[in-house]
Design a protein that fits this description.
Distance between the termini: 48 Å
Structural class: mainly alpha
Number of strands: 0
Radius of gyration: 18 Å
Number of helices: 6
Length: 125
């Protein structure tokens, strides 16, 4: 149960990193400043997310780390032995999928928030 809650929390905060940083940067790169201003006027709660992006990335990273420990640590299979183990296998696959989706979303958000500008400066763009 704890692993599933952590999976959803990690996915939720990772999606927040994607919305605060990656989506506005992508819109700005493709369509320019007018698209970013239209996006911010349509979705004004993105501004506080970007103001506190360091905290958002810190909390999301910590939740991902805790979820990884809970997901990949050795654990007892007593609960799975009761019903044949099929339910635990399905739940485990779903939780792993949520975890890796959250890691991917977090990575994309991190790349846009912290790595894009230094790379562009290095390339002279």
């Amino acid at each position: 149960m704890r692993v599933r809650v952590m999976a959803f929390l990690s996915l939720f905060t990772s999606t927040g990193t994607l919305l605060c940083c990656a989506l506005p940067a992508l819109l700005g790169a493709i369509a320019g400043g007018a698209a970013v201003s239209s996006f911010i006027s349509a979705v004004p709660w993105v501004v506080p997310l970007s103001r506190y992006k360091a905290w958002l990335f810190l909390v999301a990273g910590l939740l991902l780390a805790v979820e990884a420990v809970l997901l990949f640590r050795p654990r007892s299979r007593i609960a799975c032995a009761v019903n044949g183990g099929e339910a635990c296998e399905v739940t485990g696959q779903w939780t792993r999928w949520l975890f890796w989706s959250a890691v991917l979303i977090y990575g994309i958000g991190f790349a846009f928030a912290y790595a894009l500008v230094p790379v562009m400066r290095l390339l002279g763009v």
